Amino acid sequence: MMLKKSIPLLLFISILCAVASAQQKDTLSITLENVSYPYPVKYFSVQTEGQDLKMAYMDVPASQMSNGRTVILFHGKNFGGYYWTNVIQALSKRGFRVIVPDQIGFGKSSKAFIHYSFHQMARWNKNLLDSLGIQKASVLGHSMGGMLATRFALLYPQNTEKLLLENPIGLEDYRQIIPYVTTEEQYKTELKATAESIRKYYQNSYFVQWKPPYEELVRIAAGPVNSADFPRWAKVAAMTFTMIFEQPVMYEFPNVKVPTVLFIGKEDKTIVGKGLLGQQEQNQYGQYKLLGKQTVAKIPGAKLIEFEGCGHIPHLEVPTEFEIALLGSL
């Protein structure tokens, strides 16, 4: 009789262990220690507001004969350096040195409670390049990284060989579109994130057609949700949302003095804070098939390359076409 009673107990314990194991497998630290990046990760020290921070980056040399040129890649808000793998490989094979930072507050870098600003981020990236002995680089920025890349080019035109913008956000002034929310209110919204809500957002917002390889992006983005440090992650996400909302660069596009190329997936309909809008307003704004043309007209001498049937991330959705266009532009 004792044996019969113990079997359900053993089964129950086994199930609990399996559930705990699954949760542990799906849980990522907020600095992604358990996420493998495609190349070795190094750290650059940053001191600000009395805090010692770490800025993660990859420094990938040319895999073929070096052409003596460098490209630095700025990721989007919901990403880190991990999603640039195919772009790094394409550039490295063509002789470029590739620097791939995780901005402070993102990826493997410190999740600090500080005042986030594109000016400050641009300076940190300039300091990183200085530390590596790089005097000039082409700057490729995707999504939020496009806002940062634009700020970098405005602040350091002498150090920017080319400005390359892949579906950058901030082509509209969100302050005129989105109802204002405080950082604290946005923090409460970020705390509600779940793995399923993140998957739905990626599926509905980033790609025209969902493909199985994109699940890895969701796994990494959703991993910190179950971390004990998730509230810190959510707070930083809210603080950087405020940065995007309050620090537009679009009015300074006419001041860009370096050669510029926009790479635009025409089916992109990204609006930061889109969930705060009604359907009619969602249909009115975030139309990249129009925004690309409007923006390139503002930047002296800029060129526009558009991708049909492509959404917010051309380098992942149409990788071959994007790489050909990028290398041709360089």
From TrEMBL:
This is Pimeloyl-ACP methyl ester carboxylesterase. SUPFAM superfamilies: alpha/beta-Hydrolases. It comes from the Bacteria. One of its GO terms (molecular function) is monoacylglycerol lipase activity. Coiled coil: none annotated. It comes from Pedobacter nutrimenti. GO terms for biological process: acylglycerol catabolic process. Transmembrane segments: none annotated. The keyword Signal applies. InterPro entries: AB_hydrolase_1, AB_hydrolase_fold, AB_hydrolase_sf, Epox_hydrolase-like. Residues 70-317 form the AB hydrolase-1 domain.
